[in-house]
Every structure is written in structure tokens, then in C-alpha cells.
Amino acid sequence: MKRDIINCQKVGRVMSILIRNAKVFRAERKDFTLGDVLVSDGLIVAVTEGTALDVSADPHVEIFDAQGRYLIPGLVDVHTHGRAGGDFSTADETMLRKMAKSYLASGVTTLLPTLASAPLEELCAATERIEAVRKETEGDPAYARFAGLHLEGRYLNPSKRGAHAPHLLFPLNADEAVDIMDRCSGVKHISAALEMDGGREFLDCMKARGITVGLGHTAATYAEAMDAIQGGIKSMTHLFNAMPPLHHRDGGAVCAGLLTPHVYCELICDGYHIAPEMVALAYRMKGDHLTLITDSMEATDCADGEYAIAGMPVIVKDGKARTIDGAIAGSTLSLLEAVKNLTIFARISLGEAVYAATMAPALQVGLAAEIGSVSEGKRADLLLLNEDLDISLMMHGGAWV
Questions:
Q1: What residue spans in the chain does CATH classification 2.30.40.10 cover?
Q2: 50 pLDDT higher than 90
């Protein structure tokens, strides 16, 4: 990414950075106000509206004129399987570092590496590699932050398996799931079909271990989905996809998710997984609890061709990924593109769409105290967008990237 510094004044040793004259995203209102943001030691320490901060008495401040461009938090992707030619289930540590750099270049500063279905020993090994790279790159502004792990695989309903190979799907097994998740630190999230035998016991065990659960790849009826919601699930995994369609005689999991205000609903907003009018419907129903995800796979930011996911070969043509039998196999979507799409599909403001890719996912996975908004005390993970909503400049952990 080309660094775009305009009227940047450096005096002595730079201790802090003042971003002046920016359209600052305000999460509490989902809009923008012209103001200043002061960053120090990797954190946002002050945010003003209108009135400029006076730093004339401090010689150790870098002043950057944003020239009225949009300043938003770094994007947060809580459901993504890979990009740049790598898949989290199979990538070695060298590839994981490459992927982390690619996520950062796309505007994603924090993500949950997401594992699709694989043999148990491979899931355990992948988790350990991800954890090793997470520890190695933590605090390094050159890499997007791996905030934990999302396991979306193995415990799925075979009738709604999507691109997951059938021989890699197994009954719910809490001990097994805990063994996988204990190999990582940070945020821990599992997608599962809780209508299968032992669903409530599985959910209770995950909650007791601090692991959040999303209902996904599910054939749940409305009653079964509501039982999972009452049991304490946090989210619906890629709403509409890999679950029965909304029907006037059977609302199913889709209706349960849309009607329950506190449940977060993930959405793949590429206009391909979900029709634009259904995106608009979901946003009208969910508002603050709609979370944009990519569900991206290894072909993201790569050429069309032959790839794989969840034990299945995949053909990517015109940026659309499908298995040989025609199932949609993840996406090649970037999260910033999803933000742009949401403004168009749902006919909402940029601030509302940015919220769905920053604060909503941060709240969903319990990271809102650290990231998700341009607020005092939070990590200085920031994107400066031009009028075309492309990235002009990025800050990660308080450092220009």
C-alpha cells in the first residue's frame, strides 16, 4: 500500500500522532463528524469534534492532515477461512504470516481465523500453528491480529453441509471440541448444528468454558432454533446460507434469528450468496446486530482457478467459488467491499455499514473494549478512506502501515 502522507510535520522524536481534520466515525451515532484524533503508545487517547486539539506545546507530535477524508476503525472479520492462496486449516506458519499481511492490506486489522471441516488431528495441528503465529505477530503492526479461533466444521448437519465433505462431519462431541479449542488463546467461537443429538448439553459445555456458539449449517426448525437461542447462542452463522430458506409455513432458523433482537446474524454481502433485497430485509430486521463477514476462502485476492476447502475441490470462476457438485464454497469477498455493498443493497448510510464491519463484530465476539470504534482507550487501528471509499492510509497499533 502506498503511504499517502500530506502536510506531515515531524519535530524531534515522534511520541504521538495527531490526525487532524478527518471525518471521524462515531459508532454511537453511526455517522461521521469533522474532528481530530490523537494517538499515543498504540492507543487512541483523545477524540474531538470540530475544535482542533492544541498540541503546540508538545514537540514530539506528528501532525497529519486528513484533508476531510473518512477515518474509520480497522475492519473486524470474525468468519474467514483464508486468502492470498492460504487456508487456515492447512497453511504452514510461513503462509499464515503471508495471509496476515494480506488481511491487513485489505483493511482487516483483527480477525478470527476460521477452520472448516478436517480430520481431528489436522484441526488440532492447525490450531497450534495459528496460536504460534498469533503469539509471534502480536503487537507487530505489519500483520493483522489473529484474535483467537472460529471452528466452523465437523459438528454440522450433513443435510446442510454446503461445501464441507460429508466424511469429515461428526456428531456433537463436547470433549473433542474443548480439546481443539484449548490449544488456542483469545476469543473462541464454534459454529454447530445444535438440533443434532446432545445439542443443549454441547452448548452448555461450551458456555461453561467461555466458548461462544453460533447456530450454523443447520436444519433446525423454528422451535429448535428458538431453543438454541434460549440456551444462549451468540449468533447465527452466515444467515440464510446452509439453513432452510425462509418459508411462510415454516420460519426455521432464519426467522428465529431475524426475530430475536440480541442474537447477531452474520451476513455475506457479495450479492451472490444472498440476493440484495434479502440483505435489505435482514438489515431492517437486525440493525445493530447484523455482522458483516467474508467467509472468504484461499482464492481471495487470487486468480480464478482450482482450489479447495473443507476437503472438497473448488472451482473459482469470475470470482465465484463452487464445488464440483455446485455448492457455494465460501467467497472471494473483501470486507471493505462488503461495506460498500451494504450501503447499496440496504440503502443505508456509510456510517451504518461501517458499524456492521467494526463495532458489531467486536461486540459479537467480546472485543468491543479494545477495538471496533474510534474511541479513547481503544487500539489505534484506523483506516483513512477517500471519497471512493478506498484505503488511502492505514494505522495499525498506532503505527502507519
A1: 16-72+374-400
A2: no
Give 391's strand partners.
385
pLDDT value, residue 7? 38
Q: What is the pLDDT of residue 15?
A: 73
pLDDT given for residue 57 in this prediction: 66
Domain limits, CATH 3.20.20.140, in the chain: 75-364
Domain covering 75-364: architecture: Alpha-Beta Barrel (3.20)
User: Identity (one letter) of the amino acid at 13?
Assistant: R
Cα–Cα distance, 31 to 380 (Å, whole number):
19
Residue pointed to by grid coordinates 451515532: 29
Own/partner long-range contacts of 89-93 (Cβ < 8 Å, ≥24 apart): 89/115, 89/116, 89/118, 89/122, 89/123, 89/126, 89/153, 89/310, 90/118, 90/122, 90/126, 91/126, 91/129, 92/129, 93/129, 93/132, 93/133, 93/136
Distance CA 124, CA 179 (A): 8
335-387 pLDDT per residue, tens: 999 999 999 999 999 999 999 999 999 999 999 999 999 999 999 999 999 99
Q: Is 387 exposed, middle or buried (0-12, 13-18, 19+ CB in 10 A)?
A: exposed
Instruction: Determine contact, residues 77/335, Cβ cutoff 8 Å.
Output: yes
Q: Which residues partner with 259 through β-bridges?
A: none
Q: Name residue 16's beta-bridge partners.
A: 40, 61
Q: What is the three-class DSSP state of 210?
A: coil
Residue (of 139, 144, 143, 162) closest to 152 by Cα position: 162
Q: Is pLDDT above 80 for 5?
A: no
* Secondary structure (DSSP) of 80-137: E-EETTEETTT--HHHHHHHHHHHHHTTEEEEEEEE-S--HHHHHHHHHHHHHHHHHH
Mean pLDDT over 186-211 rounds to: 98
Average pLDDT over residues 232-260: 97
Model pTM?
0.95
Burial 292-328 (b: 16+ CB within 10 A, else e): bbbbbbbbbbbeeeebbbbbbebebeeebbbbeeeeb
CA angle 107, 138, 303 (to 5 degrees): 40
Architecture per CATH, domain 16-72+374-400, reads as: Roll (2.30)
- Cell triple for 185: 488463546
**Is residue 399's pLDDT more than 90?**
yes
Q: What is the mean pLDDT of the chain?
A: 94
Cα–Cα distance for residue pair 373/350, rounded to 1 Å: 14
**Bridge partners, residue 150, by sequence:** 114, 189
